[in-house]
Amino acid sequence: MGLEINRDKTKIISLKHNKSYLDFLGFTFRFERDLFAGTTKYLNVFPAKKSMGNERKALKSMTGSNYCFVPIPDLIKSLNRNLIGWSNYFNFGYPRKSFRQMNNYVRNRLYIHLNRRSQRRFKWPKDISVHKFFDLLGLIYL
């Protein structure tokens, strides 16, 4: 097929060494010690920092000031579609911490977006929390 190995990009990594990791296809692979036993190490797979940053950029552009005219149900549908696709790809390994960070980021962006939509601040319901309000609007949790 005429393919050649790029010697600059190709390297052999031993993940058994302390603090060594491998970023590949948006995932980070590294050995970490067991949370309970302490001496046993296991391969931890989670979304890479670059993948998290790219998703944050996408969510920030979807909730930016140039989308203030979009109705909230339509905005939440597009956010859900994006989040479901991202979480389906990164649902391999142990992505719980990354998913929790992404949930917090989405809710903060949506909070900022709702307060920015008009010249007056958004009036939040008094008897329910912000998280419950987003849940009632249909925003998913990863």
What does this structure look like?
With 142 residues, the chain is of the alpha+beta class. It has a domain of 89 residues. Helix content is 43%, strand content 13%. The chain contains 4 helices and 3 strands. Helix 1 packs parallel to helix 3. The longest helix is centred in the C-terminal third of the chain and has 21 residues. The mean pLDDT is 88.
Percent helix = 40-55%
Uncertain spans: none
Q: Within the largest sheet, what's the order of strands?
A: 1-2-3
Count of discrete alpha- or pi-helical segments spanning 4 or more residues? 4
* N-end to C-end Cα span: 42 Å
- Return Rg in Å: 20 Å
What oligomeric state do these chains adopt?
single chain
**Strand residue content:** 5-15%
Structural class call reads alpha+beta
The H/E string reads EEEHHHH
Which features does this protein show?
single chain, 142 residues, alpha+beta, 4 helices
Please describe the topology of this protein.
Layout: E1 21-24, E2 27-33, E3 41-47, H1 49-62, H2 72-89, H3 96-116, H4 130-137
Antiparallel strand pairs: 1-2, 2-3
Helix pairs in contact: 1-3
